[in-house]
Every structure is written in C-alpha cells, then in structure tokens.
C-alpha cells in the first residue's frame, strides 16, 4: 500500500487549537520541606521455562531536603522469589501457599479467597516479581509514613500511577493515601507514559513553541480521558484507570486529578494527585466514610462507581492555589536543580538508579543459586539461565551467533 | 491514623482500620507526646468488614469475610496497655473506644469475637456508632470464631495456665467436630491446634489470644500478643538479637510449634518490638527489622501469629482439581 507522506508529516507540524485546553506555565518553587522518591525494579534470574524460574526484585526510597540534597535513603537487599507452577502436588502446594501466606502477613489482606481451589496460573515469572515489588512498595510507603522521616509538608513521589490494580487492592491503597493525607504528606504519582499523554502530546508540542523553555502543565480534562479511553463508560478497561474508591473494582486508586507536565523540551509526564489531599475530600478521612458512601449521599443511591470526571467537579480554588500549582512548581525545582539528569525530580532519578538491577548484581545472585542447586545434585549445565527467543530467525543474527 | 488532634480542647481521635498495625499506632502516639492532657478515642468505625455483593462462588473476592486477626490483636493490646498501664506508657489521656453498632456485620463480628466484653473487663468506656454498608452486601456466614478473645495467664514459672489451655482445647475440639465429617481427622487437627496454642503461649509467655476459622476455604488464623511485658531490646537490631536468642533458649517449644505449623501447611510469624521472623510452609525463613526511629517504650511485648491451611469442607464438593488429592491425603500426612 502506498503512503501519503504529506499526511504523515501532519503528525509533526499540526497546530491544534490551544483554546480547547487549560494550560499554564510554571516557575520553580523551592521544596517546602523536601521530597521523597519511591521506586522498584525486577528481573529474571533463572528461567527454567516460560512459566517457571527464579526472579529478583529490589526497591527503595530516597529523600531530599529543601535544597534538593539527598539526606536519607533506604535500598532493600535483592530479594528472590521462585515461581514453579508445574511442580509435583505436595511441594507445589507449599510454594504456592508460602507466597499467599507471606503476602497476607506482610499486608494484612488476604490475596485469594481459597488458595486450594485452583492451581497456580501459568504466567511469566516476571509478573509474579512485579506483584511482589508492588507489595514491597506498599509496605515501604507504610513504613515511611510511620517513621520519623515522614514529616508534614513533604512531597512523596511514586514512580508510576497512584492506581490500585495490584494486590493488596483498592481498599488498602485508599487507606494508605488517606493516611498520607493525615500526615500532610502530598502523594504524587509520576508516570512517563500513558494513553492520555499521547492525547495531549500535539497540544504540548504547540505549547512548547509558544512558551519557549518555560515548564508548563496541562490539566487533563474529561474530554482527554474520554479520548484516551473511548467507548461506553461501563467498559471494564475504564475501571482499571479511572474508577476510584475502595470497592473491589476501583482499580484507579486515588490518582483522580491529573496534569501533563513538561519540564523541558518535548518531555512529557503524567502527574497524579491524591484525591484525599483535595479540600473537599479531606473530611472523609476524619469521618472514615468511604468514597462510595459519599457518592451515594451526593449523587443518589443509584451512583455506585466514582470516576475521575466525578471528582474533577469538586476541585476548589484553594486546591489550585495551595496544592496543584505549588506542588507542580516544587517538582520543577526538584528536577531543574538536578545536575545529573535535569529532566526528572532528583529523588526519583536517584532512587531509580539505586534500585535498578544491573547485570553484575544479577550474575552474583544467579551464581549463588546455581551453587545451591549444585549442592542438591543439579548440574549447572542442566539449569537454563535465559529463554531462547523463538522469533530469532533473522539469518544475520543467527549466523553471527554461530560465528 | 490520627484523624483529630484538637490541642486546645484536648480531643484526640485515632481512626483504627483493618490495616492499622502496631507501628502505625506508635507513630500516631508520637504526635501526642507533648499534647495537653485530654481524651483519646480509638475509633474502630474506620474498619471495613470485607463484604461482597458477588453471589457466584467463582467471583468472590480474596478478602471476602476476612479479618486480619493479628492486626486486631495488636490494636486491642495497644488500647489495653494504654488503659491499664498509663504510668508505664506515659499516656496521661483518658482512653475510650468507639465500636461499630450491632446492626452492622462488623459490630456483630466484634461481639462474637468478644471485643465488647474485653473492653468492659479492662474498664475502657465504649461508645457505639452505626456504620454504612453497601445495600445487599453479605458477610461470610460460615466464618467461625474458633477462640474468642481470651487473656492467657502465666504462672510463676512463665508457663501458661493449664486450666485455660484445657478449656481452649475443648472448645477447638467441639468446633471442629461439628465441622468435619471425618472424626479422626477432626481429632488430630484439634490436638494439633491445641498444641500450637500451648506452644506459642510458652514462647511469648501468655497474652491476648484469638483464633478465626473459615471452613469453606480451610483457612485458619491464630494470633497472640503479650501486652504487659514490652519489647526486649532498646533498638530494632537488639530486638532481633533478643528474638533469635529467645528462640534458642526456648528451642523445644519453638520446635514443637514449628513442626505442627509446617505439617498444617502454615506460616509462623514471631515478633519482638520492631523485629520479626517469618517461617513459611515451603521451609523458607526470613527476618525483618523496621528501623523507623520511633521509641519502643510503648511497644507491647512479643507477639506470634500462625496462619494454617486446613482442608476446607467445601473442597470435597467441588469438581476435581489438582490440589484436591493433597487435601484428601491430609489425614495420612498428619499421621
């Protein structure tokens, strides 16, 4: 099929109507108290087959002071977890129950109604390690808020969205961010990718041409959310991203008010604010009322699900003046004064570098595990380390490997 | 979480939810160290009951009907410690609790567990308040309070009171005989749980105990906390060392508990202050230390939690699945 490259070129030089969106330029405001970055990473260590293996993960927290200097950090040791769904019944049950029960004791929530009812699902081991590090992040956030470091006025930045897709689930995350709000720590999710960012990217390009080097932010409106997630509102995919509260389906967590933030150049990231930091929703923390209860009292008994656009209508001027603009400007400050990267808040950039599992770390862990298997009579040449890529059929690559 | 801190009037409220643990309570209290003397309320209406509107068994959420018993024991022990030992804990406030009303599922559960009775026994003033629950939401009606809240006493030799242990054994046996069709299996499992209760009472020298059992899924939890002793060791690392050395000195009791927990495909967690150890059913062992900078003076003493996977009653009725054979084999495994 022939291409009309003139149409393709429109992607780069279209000029959308900027009156259709709400954007504003930002300064750099020194951090009120400091900022905290939370991040984690995971990797395969041994891949026995596509659903079995041993995976590793690590997480951490970095805290900077009001001058954006690192004052405290806590990086976990590398933790490993085995995923062995095809083991014989007795040991298989033990490994499965160990994961379930340890998750329950670490979080206070039960991961599955009846663990004996179904055998392990066959999934890539990396998905299990991703779930483990989410749980670890949850625990780390709790511990931080309990500790003497969790002081009022901090900006707590999580790498990724403030959603509740993973265990321990919506109710646990709802309570966690309520608690963060009672500590007067501002919870922020910063995501580098997402459909909604692509929706506003043409506008961001046009704004950049107008404002030059200045940082700016675009408010993500109901129209942007609908463009990113088209179709009926009852579509299950919407729940995942946009439904809030503590019901089991509210996988959107607490990140209900969003901005597309461009600190410099073409870079764009999604910044989500904790809805319990909003003036209107703070009283729910004191009363202990759930968001679902509030929705039924506010919109009527038929209202069961609360979406982001329901929340947007309750944003007040005070939220703009005391929460959104100052916090976005603090994030800009935290990124601008970073000499290493300059595009990303220092606390997040540092924690990302510290938790990243590098080849040397993985190799040491891998060798230790292979030696331990050796003690149990498993020869190293029986242990696959990586999976063969079945699509690697390019003769150039295959021939190079043979050479 | 500390939701009200009205310093001029001396009104303080700590919202207690199902995820509230001892560290959160200690952290909340650290904000009140120099607060004027007043009235401190622990508001349990922030807790959720884990109800569901789902009907089909395959759509039941993981947390349906579940209550994290270890957290409840920690919360109640903390309240008890403040109310009973104000001098030791430096708590100069009048302590009271708000519990969910009896019209709610949560209020009924608290009644079954014996929370109201316990508060009366400790002379902690109680107020009840209605809580909102979604229309048509249901609780797990099969859930059993295997052991309601009970204070296990110890004698001069730090051994648990034999009469209390015997009474608990009888109660467990009665409940399980009513649940299991296989009388031999019920007898063996009752004896095993009775041994675990005695073992952890030996290990942590008595304290507040309770146990929940979910017959449909075969899930059992048992938790105990010694609220009078306080943590041993002034720093988290010292507390971990103490925990390790205590496990050595009480090796026979520890070995007995661990052996039974492993045979029931369970996990044993032992804590001292901010340090804890965790022994999982796959034989793995982990230690954790919370270095949060908080003083450990108000930490109630050692605590133990056991999670067991029993063969659930409904499993036999379900269509065949891979693990069914294991559960059918259990009476043999237990031998």
List the helices and strands and how they pair.
The complex is a heterodimer of chains A (403) and B (335).
Chain A: H1 5-13, E1 23-25, E2 34-47, E3 53-65, E4 70-75, E5 79-83, H2 89-107, H3 125-146, E6 155-159, H4 170-182, E7 186-191, H5 195-211, E8 216-219, H6 222-228, H7 236-242, E9 243-244, E10 255-262, E11 269-274, H8 282-287, H9 291-299, E12 306-307, H10 308-312, H11 317-336, H12 346-355, H13 359-375, H14 395-402
Chain B: E1 2-6, E2 11-15, H1 22-30, E3 39-43, H2 69-84, H3 86-89, E4 94-100, H4 105-113, H5 115-121, E5 126-129, E6 144-152, H6 162-179, H7 183-204, E7 207-214, E8 219-225, H8 236-249, H9 251-263, E9 267-272, E10 275-279, E11 285-289, E12 303-309, H10 324-334
Parallel strand pairs in B: 2-3, 3-4, 4-5
Antiparallel strand pairs in B: 1-2, 6-7, 7-8, 8-12, 9-10, 9-12, 10-11
Task: For the structure shown, list the relevant keywords.
heterodimer; A: 403 residues; alpha+beta; 2 domains; ten-stranded mixed β-sheet; two-stranded antiparallel sheet; 14 helices; globular; B: 335 residues; Transcription Regulator spoIIAA; seven-stranded antiparallel β-sheet; five-stranded mixed β-sheet; 10 helices; disordered C terminus
């Amino acid at each position: 099929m022939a291409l009309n490259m003139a149409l393709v070129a429109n992607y780069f030089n279209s000029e959308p109507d900027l009156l259709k969106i709400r954007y504003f330029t930002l300064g750099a405001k020194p951090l009120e108290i400091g900022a905290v970055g939370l991040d984690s990473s995971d990797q395969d260590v041994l891949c026995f087959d596509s659903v079995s293996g041993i995976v590793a993960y690590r997480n951490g927290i970095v805290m900077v002071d009001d001058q954006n200097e690192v004052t405290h950090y806590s990086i976990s040791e590398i933790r490993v977890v085995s995923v062995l769904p095809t083991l014989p019944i007795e040991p298989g049950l033990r490994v499965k129950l160990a994961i379930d029960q340890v998750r329950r004791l670490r979080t206070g929530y039960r991961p599955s109604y009846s663990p004996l009812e179904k055998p392990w699902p066959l999934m890539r081991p990396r998905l299990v390690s991703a779930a483990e590090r989410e749980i670890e992040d949850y625990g780390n956030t709790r511990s931080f808020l309990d500790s003497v470091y969790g002081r009022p006025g901090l900006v707590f930045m999580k790498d990724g969205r403030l959603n509740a897709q993973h265990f321990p689930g919506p109710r646990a995350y709802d309570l966690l961010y309520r608690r963060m709000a009672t500590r007067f720590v501002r919870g922020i999710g910063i995501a580098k990718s997402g459909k909604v960012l692509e929706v506003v990217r043409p506008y961001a390009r046009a704004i950049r041409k107008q404002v030059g080097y200045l940082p700016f932010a675009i408010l993500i409106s109901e129209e942007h959310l609908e463009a990113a997630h088209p179709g009926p509102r009852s579509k299950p995919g919407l729940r995942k991203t946009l439904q809030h509260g503590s019901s089991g389906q509210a996988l959107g967590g607490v990140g209900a008010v969003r901005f597309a933030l461009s600190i410099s150049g073409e870079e764009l990231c999604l910044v989500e604010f904790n809805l319990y930091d909003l003036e209107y929703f703070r009283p729910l923390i004191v009363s202990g009322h759930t968001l679902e209860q509030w929705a039924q009292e506010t919109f009527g008994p038929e209202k069961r699900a609360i979406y982001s656009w329901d929340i947007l209508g309750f944003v007040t001027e005070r939220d703009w003046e005391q929460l959104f603009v100052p916090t976005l400007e603090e994030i800009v400050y935290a990124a601008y004064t970073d000499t290493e990267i300059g595009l990303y808040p220092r606390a997040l950039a540092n924690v990302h570098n510290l938790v990243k599992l590098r080849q040397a770390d993985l190799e040491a862990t891998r060798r230790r595990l292979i030696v331990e298997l050796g003690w149990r009579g498993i020869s190293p040449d029986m242990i696959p380390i990586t999976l063969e890529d079945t699509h690697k059929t390019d003769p150039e690559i295959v021939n190079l490997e043979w050479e | 979480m500390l939701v009200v801190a009205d310093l001029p009037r001396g009104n303080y409220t700590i919202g207690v939810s199902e995820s509230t643990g001892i560290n959160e309570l200690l952290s909340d209290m650290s904000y009140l160290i120099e607060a004027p003397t007043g009235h401190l309320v622990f508001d349990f209406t922030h807790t959720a009951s884990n109800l569901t509107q789902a009907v089909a068994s395959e759509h039941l959420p993981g947390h349906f009907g579940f209550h994290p018993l270890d957290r409840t024991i920690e919360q109640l022990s903390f309240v008890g410690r403040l109310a009973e030992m104000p001098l030791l804990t430096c708590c100069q406030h009048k302590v009271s609790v708000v519990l969910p009303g009896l019209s709610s599922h949560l209020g009924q559960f608290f009644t079954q567990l014996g929370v109201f009775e316990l508060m009366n026994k400790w002379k902690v003033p109680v107020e009840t308040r209605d809580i909102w629950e979604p229309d048509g939401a249901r609780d797990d009606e099969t859930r059993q309070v295997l052991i309601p809240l009970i204070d296990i006493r110890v004698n001069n030799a730090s051994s648990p009171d034999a009469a209390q242990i015997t009474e608990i054994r009888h109660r467990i046996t009665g409940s399980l005989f009513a649940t299991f069709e296989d009388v031999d299996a019920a007898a063996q499992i009752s004896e095993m749980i009775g041994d675990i209760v005695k073992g952890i009472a030996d290990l942590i020298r008595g304290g507040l105990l309770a146990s929940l059992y979910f017959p449909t899924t075969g899930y059992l939890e048992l938790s105990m906390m010694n609220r009078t002793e306080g943590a041993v060791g002034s720093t988290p690392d010292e507390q971990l060392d103490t925990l390790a050395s205590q496990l050595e000195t009480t090796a026979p009791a520890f070995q007995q508990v661990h052996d039974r927990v492993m045979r029931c495909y369970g996990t044993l967690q032992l804590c001292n202050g901010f340090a804890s150890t965790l022994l999982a059913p796959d034989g793995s062992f982990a230690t954790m230390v919370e270095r949060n900078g908080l003083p450990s003076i108000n930490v109630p003493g050692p605590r133990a939690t056991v999670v067991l996977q029993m063969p659930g009653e409904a499993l036999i009725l379900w269509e065949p699945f891979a693990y069914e054979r294991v559960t059918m084999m259990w009476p043999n495994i237990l031998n």
